[in-house]
Amino acid sequence: MRWLVILASIVVLAASSVNCSRERANSANDIFSSSNILAPSASNRAATPVAAQGKGGHKNPAVGSSSSSLTLVTYTDINGNGLPNWGDTVTFNVSTTETTEPHVDLKCSQNGVIVYGATTGYFASYLWPWTQFMTLSSTAWQSGAADCTAELYYFSGTQTPIIASISFTAGG
Known about the structure:
Blueprint: H1 2-17, H2 28-32, H3 34-37, E1 47-53, E2 68-76, E3 89-96, E4 103-110, E5 113-121, E6 134-135, E7 146-153, E8 162-170
Antiparallel strand pairs: 1-2, 2-3, 3-6, 4-5, 4-7, 7-8
């Protein structure tokens, strides 16, 4: 019972710290709602026209090649223009044959200064699935457009090979 209480406390702390750097923090109901825990499907959200194919592949071409893709999805589109903007919530559709535990790292910058950063896993057993929904704002990013780059990678010992990446501009 004691371990269960400690584990529950850790999960609550992780959930409450997800939005600590964001201006508009989600309520606990938003964080744990079923729509935030499950990745969006094509039926409830439209993908923005930003995608990248990873180069993938193995060192030995005879073994076969791999493929990876990373597609930006605007989950909450505040102004309804179908493009990512400051304050919108985004997620990613991830596909790879390179690993069973892909991660995405998103960084946004204004004038070369990083104003937003988020990293999360995109696999079924990932412990914090609500972090797959990233609100494009922070205390450092109060408004305006930002240049963003998302990288699809996985952990492999001390290395984190990047298998696909995309860049986009989040409007202001």
